[in-house]
Amino acid sequence: MKQLKQWSVGAALLLVAIFVYSCGGDNKGTGNSEGKISTKDSIKASRIDSIIIAADNAKDYDRKFFLADSLEKSGDISSVRANFLRGSALNSQKQKAAAEVYYKKALEVEELDDKDVTYYSRSARTLAQMYSVKNDYEATLRVATPAVEKLEGNAKAQSRDLAVLYYTIGSAEMYLGNEKEASKSYENAYWHYNNSISMKDTNGSRIRSAITGVNNITVACLNTQHYKEGKKWNDRTDSILYVYRLRPDADTEFCDHYRARIRLFNALTSYAAGNHAAADQAFEGFLTTDYAKTEQGKLDANDYLMMAHRYEEASKNFRTLDHWIELRDMKLTLDNISLYLVPKFKANYGSGHKDSALYVANQICAAYDSALVWSKRDDTAEMATIYETNKKEEELARSQWEVEKREHEIARQRLIGLIVGVLLLVGFFGFYVVHNRRALKLLQSAYGQLEEATTARERIESELRIARDIQMSMIPAGNLESEGLDLFASMTPAKEVGGDLYDYFMEKNHLYFAIGDVSGKGVPASLFMAQVIRLFRAMAKHHYTPAEICSRINDELTENNENGMFITMFIGLVDLTTGRLDFCNAGHNPPVLGGDADGGNFLQMIPNAPIGLWQGLEYEGEFIESIKGKPLFIYTDGLNEAENPQLERFGDEHMLEVLRETRFTNAMQVVEMLKRQVEEHRAGADPNDDLTMMCLKVG
């Protein structure tokens, strides 16, 4: 209420100001000579450049857009420059569709003034590259071709801008299958790059641009499988890079990056030409660079590994890149599925990792529908953005027209302003009373909505707590002590409810036990987990072997499994009298057998598939004659894949090292000790997965 009163006072003061202004005169300065005006204009232009640069340096793109509007209205900058500034401001904010609208407007000028050449050419090259990235090559040509015709021969046009425009034209022609036209455009781009290099280059930026541009020509040739043409442009890149490396100010990281790419492209072109020995030699040279050790370098390396059918190496690279993808929170668009997941599937399939290939195939299927939805949303958002941008342009044009009209009728408007000011002063207080009542009603309504939202949130939290209690009640007690047996288990969900499970079942001197990890987290995973526990107990009571239990559970879960959920499991059966362990591993992490006395090691097991993927699978079981006196430690990947704030994982080797160095007292001590180790490793980071552990020892 206090803020409302302050607003009303401010509004009243504003109306008084309007009243006073409407009575004022029109004061204009006089007496400036033409020489003084010229000097002031020069200083003003310099200041305009400074404030635009300052907004760019501060990444204040909203202010940059506002400056473009206000400076164009005042006549201080041209419409070409204003539209370029608007486009670049929106482009920096990832508003690509809206940026395209303004870049197009910058290109609509018929007569190109010398002061606008730079902004025209940069608008053209940026817009052409944006279309090229979207694979819209016809649109690329519609923008770039008339631009080079207008800029060629213009003394103010920069060679670097013309080189980029010719490169985008050439690449568009290459992708459209017009190789001869593409070759001509590439040669024109190369000429302009060389012309740019021949000019004064104090910091090496011109030659670095040339290296990048010619290298991009190579990429376009290789992507369209024109390997002979690509070899020519790769050699030219190497020649320019050699000149740059001789400079005392050469950037070593830049040189390493492009030396790596040149060697990799040599490997690709040599292999395509049938010279496999030279290709392998060039690839080995690529691997010696620092760039090859980066995540992007490994992804680039897979282009050659896949071409050379070195699938095992490629699949290893893709495994190391999973973390890189997660770190960047990469959205699996249709392009990213094609770029990353499809080659990953081919690599795993080609190297014989059928389970991994199937897992990636499931990822592709799951991501495809989402990618289509995102694509449609992006298209809708783009159309909406274009609509809003055009609407804003209409409003700006209408506003400009109103300003011009007011300049011609200023005296009449002031008279009207005087009358309106008086009427507003009289009517303001009536408006205040009405507004005050409406504000009170809005506050009451908002409070009611807040109360409803709070109640709904509390109800959801309560239901999740109940679900967690129900889930935890389904698993047995954490410890089991029987003659000749020490068993302890622990389950900690990452969310309110989780998808991990453990269970055991004792009958006379036989112990059935299981541990599992459902794909996904949250409520769907917890429901799937409950179904698995029910099936496991039913099968164990019928005295099936672990392999038979896995096969029968798989048949049950694959029926009507429309969501494609699955579970990895380790199921065991121990004879407490003899110590014999019969077990079946269904795609689960390998347990550790042994401890401080004789050193623990991962069990070597048959790689059965996870449960729930294919119907009719017959799972293979294995056995160990006796595990007496040796602790058996089973776990889910919430242990070895636990991450700290730096996204470093706990790791298999670290887990094995801890188990080997821990003196076994009892099963509980082993599980609780590892739980503490994981908490210390996380260092306050939220858990990224459910954590379940079980340890047992037969006396």
Provide the fold topology.
Layout: H1 2-22, H2 34-57, H3 61-73, H4 79-92, H5 96-106, H6 117-133, H7 137-151, H8 159-175, H9 179-198, H10 205-223, H11 227-245, H12 252-272, H13 276-287, H14 295-307, H15 311-327, H16 334-350, H17 354-408, H18 410-474, E1 479-482, E2 485-492, E3 500-507, E4 510-518, H19 522-541, H20 546-558, E5 567-575, E6 581-586, E7 592-593, E8 601-602, E9 622-624, E10 632-635, H21 637-640, H22 652-661, H23 667-682, E11 691-698
Antiparallel strand pairs: 1-2, 2-11, 3-4, 4-5, 5-6, 6-9, 7-8, 7-10, 10-11
Helix pairs in contact: 1-18, 2-3, 3-4, 4-5, 4-6, 5-6, 5-17, 6-7, 6-8, 7-8, 8-9, 8-10, 9-10, 10-11, 10-12, 11-12, 12-13, 12-14, 14-15, 15-16, 16-17, 19-20
Summed up:
It is built from 23 helices and 11 strands.
Strand order of the largest sheet: 1-2-11-10-7-8
Structural class: alpha+beta
Mean pLDDT: 79
First and last CA, distance: 76 Å
Largest sheet: 6 strands, antiparallel
CA-based gyration radius: 35 Å
> Total number of helical segments?
23
Shape: elongated
E-strand count: 11
Uncertain spans: 1-37, 376-387
Our estimate of the beta-strand percent is 5-15%
State the oligomer: single chain
Percentage of helical residues?
Answer: 55-70%
